[in-house]
Amino acid sequence: MFKLKLGLVAGLAFTCLDSVAAEPLQPSQIVTQAQAKAEKGDGYVFYSYFTKPTFGTQDALTGVAVIEPGKEIHPPHIHAEEEYLMVIEGEGVWSLKDKDIPAKAGDILYAAPWDSHGIRNTGNKPLKFVVMKWHSKGLPVPAELAAQKP
């Protein structure tokens, strides 16, 4: 019986690994800012570094944004992915769940799936922040979060 259970577990693991391996996964590497894809918008530049799925994530985005004074990349928004934002230069205002909170260098925001969030530059010099967001593979969305889905 033990061998049967072990065989089933191993078979399931290989099946899961097979389906993951079928996707083009992000290799380990270093990307310089000069190599990052730069998107210019009204008052900002967004440098996109890694966007491919990894062994444990999908819908990933890592990048650095530079926002000019008085600007934002977009208004507060929601999405299914978890997200971290870290201010590394400048100051501004976080928006988190419809509340405005001062943002300064060294601060980090975590936004759970479907929580409204954003940042705008209210300072007098460029605001620079790092962003990392992703959706974990194989993890179900908790019912209370799925119910909040728009």
From TrEMBL:
Parts forming coiled coils: none
InterPro entries: Cupin_2, GPI/OXD, RmlC-like_jellyroll, RmlC_Cupin_sf
The UniProt record lists the keyword Chaperone: no
Signal peptide range: 1-21
Gene3D superfamilies: Jelly Rolls (2.60.120.10)
Keywords, in A-Z order: Metal-binding, Signal
Gene Ontology MF terms in the entry: metal ion binding
Domain Cupin type-2 span(s) in chain numbering: 64-131
Domain of life according to the entry: Bacteria
Name of the featured protein: Cupin domain-containing protein
Organism: Rheinheimera mesophila
